[in-house]
Design a protein that fits this description.
By secondary structure, this protein is an alpha+beta fold. The protein has a single domain, classed as HIT-like (HIT family, subunit A). The protein is 29% helix and 21% strand. A 5-stranded antiparallel β-sheet has the order 1-2-3-5-4, covered by helices on one side. A hairpin with a 3-residue loop joins strand 1 and strand 2. The longest helix is centred in the middle third of the chain and has 17 residues. The structure holds 2'-deoxyguanosine-5'-monophosphate (DGP). The site of 2'-deoxyguanosine-5'-monophosphate (DGP) has 13 residues, from strand 2.
Length: 120
């Protein structure tokens, strides 16, 4: 999918709209989801213009990929949910149910979560 520079997370990265930031480095930004599905619900996004996990894994550098996945673990530990466990999800494309077309990993924790995929 061609990257849409006007998507909401691109606007957050540009500082055009605010976010509740929890973590940032040269490659990654993480902030709280506006519609949390668990006591802790954080979105981790790369700073590069990648529309989804397919785009990212095809085009991103080894450094960007390593930094992104490392940040997911760092955020979970920072937020105190790693010991009890948590879930990471990245919805990719139409069938994946992705709504915002900038790659993001959801980190969900702070309670026991239900089945991984609800019955349709
Ligand atoms: P997905 O369906 O995987 O594309 O999830 C998109 C998530 O983004 C959804 O859980 C709600 C969240 N979201 C949408 N708009 C905003 C926003 O403006 N700010 C924040 N913090 N989260 C947003």
């Amino acid at each position: 999918m061609a990257y849409d520079p006007d998507n909401i997370f691109a606007k957050i990265l540009r500082g055009d709209i605010p976010c509740d930031k929890v973590y940032e480095n040269d490659h990654v930004l993480a902030f709280r989801d506006i519609n949390p599905q668990a006591p802790t619900h954080i979105l981790v996004i790369p700073k590069g213009a990648y529309s989804d996990a397919d785009d990212f894994t095809a085009r991103a550098s080894q450094e960007e990929i390593a930094a992104f996945f490392k940040a997911v673990g760092d955020v979970a530990r920072q937020e105190g949910i790693a010991d009890q466990g948590y879930r990471i999800i990245s919805n990719c494309g139409h069938n994946g149910g992705q709504e915002v077309p900038h790659l993001h990993i959801h980190i969900l924790g702070g309670r026991r979560l239900g089945r991984m995929v609800a019955a349709a």
